[in-house]
Amino acid sequence: xxxxxxxxxxxxxxxxxxxxxxxxxxxxxxxxxxxxxxxxxxxxxxxxxxxxxxxxxxxxxxxxxxxxxxxxxxxxxxxxxxxxxxxxxxxxxxxxxxxxxxxxxxxxxxxxxxxxxxxxxxxxxxxxxxxxxxxxxxxxxxxxxxxxxxxxxxxxxxxxxxxxxxxxxxxxxxxxxxxxxxxxxxxxxxxxxxxxxxxxxxxxxxxxxxxxxxxxxxxxxxxxxxxxxxxxxxxxxxxxxxxxxxxxxxxxxxxxxxxxxxxxxxxxxxxxxxxxxxxxxxxxxxxxxxxxxxxxxxxxx
Length: 301
Prior knowledge:
Layout: E1 2-11, E2 14-15, E3 21-22, E4 35-39, E5 42-43, H1 47-57, E6 62-68, E7 71-77, E8 80-82, E9 87-89, E10 92-97, E11 104-108, E12 113-116, E13 132-146, E14 155-173, E15 176-181, E16 195-196, E17 205-212, E18 217-227, E19 238-242, H2 245-251, E20 262-265, E21 268-277, E22 280-288, H3 289-295
Parallel strand pairs: 16-21
Antiparallel strand pairs: 1-4, 1-10, 1-13, 2-3, 4-5, 4-6, 6-7, 8-9, 11-12, 12-15, 13-14, 14-15, 17-18, 17-20, 18-19, 19-22, 20-21, 21-22
């Protein structure tokens, strides 16, 4: 996923020609989580654009346009020549996107829209929800599992098939990422699809999840232990517990990369896995499928 402009994720010192330490960006109101979208009226699409513009400018004062909480601001910064690598620096760390492994929760073959993850993608450095300009859905090959343990979250490790885009991500919000697929997504077991459960149809009791652990989509048993119908947490509508011995043996429970795994109960899609409890990897949270599905009405086509 790529953001509009570049995201400020940190600040750093710059050692000048005279050997003294400078902090150019500290003279401004720019802080972590802001997005720089223009420099000297030039649109910034990625970190390379920013680096090129700063070095081209030299030691002249530059005008920066940035966004914070939907509002645009202007600041002026004078770059400092960095003695160590002989380039001009602003004293800030930036990034232009994020990449990671997750699970597609559902796909509508009529509209070609999909929902995934069950929670939004946040920047690991700032903790803020990424404002997506564009993104790609790619197939991934699972190459290993780090088993989850108490206080140590596990993860699914994989590699992406670069250049084999299967869809576009257009929306990143608190209860998932959404977009359209350019391929038909089907499962042999559910070749004719599955019904969507409403929130009031979800029950405490036995259920299953679909997850890809070793490059094969399999169904594993779980238990829905609690339902939070009036929860203010946008992606923690139910408390679930992994009961499948095979899955616990392989992963320890819920691990990173399983977010979005569909939750099925009474032959209906009731939700998607969203979080793991750090102190007990066999337990975690899920979001209602209805809540995710309702977001697809607003996807840009």
